[in-house]
Amino acid sequence: MFKKILIANRGEIACRVIRTARRMGIKTVAVYSDADARAPHVRLADESVRLGPAPAAESYLKAELIIDACKATGAEAVHPGYGFLSERTSFAEALEKAGIAFIGPPPNAIAAMGDKIESKKLAKAAGVNVVPGYLGEIADTDEAVKIAHDIGFPVMMKASAGGGGKGMRLAYNEKDVREGFEATKREGLNSFGDDRVFIEKFIEDPRHIEIQVLGDKHGNILYLNERECSIQRRHQKVIEEAPSPFVSPEMRKAMGEQCVALARAVGYHSAGTVELIVSGADKTGESFYFLEMNTRLQVEHPVTEEVTGLDLVEQMIRVAAGEKLAFTQDEVKLNGWSIEARVYAEDPYRGFLPSTGRLTTYRPPAEHRDGDSVIRVDDGVAEGGEISMFYDPMIAKLISWAPTRDEAVQALDAFQLSGISDNIDFLSALLQHQRFRSGELTTGFIAEEYPEGFTGAPADEQLMTDLAALAAIVELTVETRAALIDGQLGDPVFPEAVQVVRIGKRDFTVAIAPYDGGNLAIVDGGEAIDVVGDWSPGDKLLVADMDGRHRIVQVAKSGRGWTLTTRGAAHKVVVVPRHIAELAKHMIEKVPPDMSRFLLAPMPGLLTRLEVKAGDKVEAGQPVAVVEAMKMENILRAEKSATVKATQAKAGDSLAVDQIIVEFE
C-alpha cells in the first residue's frame, strides 16, 4: 500500500480523497493555486505545494508542476479527482514515465473512451447497444442533411470531442441541420480543438442513467448498479439518485453486463462510469443506449457509496496499489435509496447567473448516520472563505440516504448560506415537485417545468398561514426584547399582540398569545395554532412545531421587514401594528430609477471583450461585451437600438454585480 499520495485537485473532491486516505493510514499532499492558499483541502492535508497563479491553466492544469510536487514530497501516487487532468491521457502517461502510480485507469482506456466517435465504435463491437446514427467522417452540410434523413428526424449533432453541453445541436428538420452543422463544427474546434461531428438519433423522453463499474488489474470487473441523473440544466446534472425509479432488476442486469463487457474490451481497471440514454417512452425497459464512458470518479459517486456500502475512493487506491477486488458481483448490495443535491454559487432568481464573493455564513445541515437515515455533506469550503470566479461554481453536495425513496427526499431548509447567491431554494423546489416525487423524469424536466425561469416554489394555503404566524412571533419577540432594555426608554411599553403581516401583496391579521414554552397564534380569525419553538433575535434558523407540522425557516432582517425562507422560496414579509397598516395604504409607492441607459454587469466576472466604443451605434441584440465567470463566457447584448455615450470599463477589468460597463445616449 502507498505511504503517501498527492491529490491533483481542489475543493470538495480533494477533501473527500484526503479523508479516505487518512482513514487508510496514508499521508496526503495537497496542491493549490494562489486563490486556494487558505482553502480547507490545503489545511486538511499533511503537506501542501503551491502550483502557481489562480487561473487553472497556470496551476491545476500544468502536469509538469504536479509531477515536480510528487518528486519534492515523495508522493508515490496521484489521485486526479474529476475535471482538470483526470481524463488527460498525456498526464497518466507522464506519471507512468516518472514512476508515479496513477489512481485511475490505464492510459489506453482513457484515450479509447475520450473520443466519442471511436468509443461508440468500440461499444458497438463489444455488443453494447448504441444509438442509431452515423459515426464516420462527415464531409459537409449536404452530406449531413442526407445522413439525417436516412436516420430519421429528430437527430442530434455532436462534436466528437465535446462535453459539458458544448458542441451539441438538436435538429427537427433539414433547415435545422443546415443552420446547425457548421456551428457545431466551429464549437468543437474552438472549445476542444477538434471539428469532427457525428449525427445520431435523438431519443424521445430521454432519461440519463449511468452504470458504475469497478475493475482491478487482475481481470475482475463488476458493476455497482445504476444512478439516475436525468435532472439536468443545460446538460449539467443538478440532482442524482441511486437506484433509478425507472430501472427494473432485469434492466439493471442487462445494462450492467453490457457495461462490464465494454470495460473489459478496453482493459479497464479502477472506477469508471458508463453513461446511457434511456427512452422513457419505452415501458419495456429495453431501449437503453451507450452515450459515453467517463474514465474517472464521478461527482455523484456518493449515492452509489450509500446504497452499496462501498468507499469508491478506497477501492480506487487499493486497485492502483495492485490489490484484487475483495468481493464478487453477487456480493454487491443495493440497500435503500440515496439522493444527492448539488449546491451551486448561482442565482436561480436571475437566470442562474454565477455568483462569487465571501461566504459570510456557511452552516450545512448536521451530518448523521444511523440505521434509519443518513445526512452527509461533501464540501471543500468554510465560513469566511472566498468563492472564486476561476473555478467551478459547486459549493457542496448534500447527500441523504433512507430505506425508501420518499424518506430519502430531503428538504434543504436547514442549509444556511449567505454572502453569495445560491441555488438552495431551487433544489428544495425540485425535491418537493410532484413530478419528481412520482419519478416521471426526463432530461427535459427543468426546461419543461420552469420554461419562464425560477421564481420560487409555490406555497400552499397552510404554509402561508404558518409563515404569517411565525413572522408575527418573530416581530413580537424582537419588539418585546427592545421594550425590556433597562432604562433606555423609561417604563417599558409592550408591543401590540395583534399584528398585520404582509407577505408579498397579501395581508394577514395575526393575534399572538405567548405562554411559557410557546405561543398561540390566530390567523385571520381562524383556529388557534399551537406554536412550540425557541427563537431569539440574532438566530438565523427558526425551528417550530405547529400543531404537528414541522417547520424549518431561515430568518433574515431585510430593511424594515424580514425575509423568511423555507420550502424552496424566499418570502418578503413586513409586520406592523393594525393602525400603521391602515396608514400604510396611503403611502406613495417608490418607483425604482430607470437604469435602461446602462449596460450593467449581471454577475461578478472578468470583462474579456468590449465590442463597442463611444459614438458607436448598436442595434437590438447586438453583442456589446463578453464577461467570463466560473469557466463560462456570457455575451451581453444591447436590449434596443442606441448610441454609445461612454464606456466605463475596459477589457481585463474585474467586474462587480451591477457595475456599469457601457452608458448609452
TrEMBL record:
Keyword Isomerase: no
Cofactor: biotin
EC number(s) reported in the record: 6.4.1.3
Biotin carboxylation domain residues: 1-451
Coiled-coil portions: none
Domain of life of the source: Bacteria
Xref: InterPro entries: ATP-grasp, BC-like_N, Biotin_BS, Biotin_carboxylase_complex, Biotin_carboxylation_dom, Biotin_COase_C, Biotin_lipoyl, CPAse_ATP-bd
UniProt keyword terms in alphabetical order: ATP-binding, Biotin, Ligase, Lipid degradation, Lipid metabolism, Magnesium, Manganese, Metal-binding, Nucleotide-binding
Keyword Coiled coil part of the UniProt annotation: no
Pathway: Metabolic intermediate metabolism; propanoyl-CoA degradation; succinyl-CoA from propanoyl-CoA: step 1/3
Protein name: propionyl-CoA carboxylase
Organism of this sequence: Sphingomonas caseinilyticus
High-level lineage: Bacteria, Pseudomonadati, Pseudomonadota, Alphaproteobacteria, Sphingomonadales
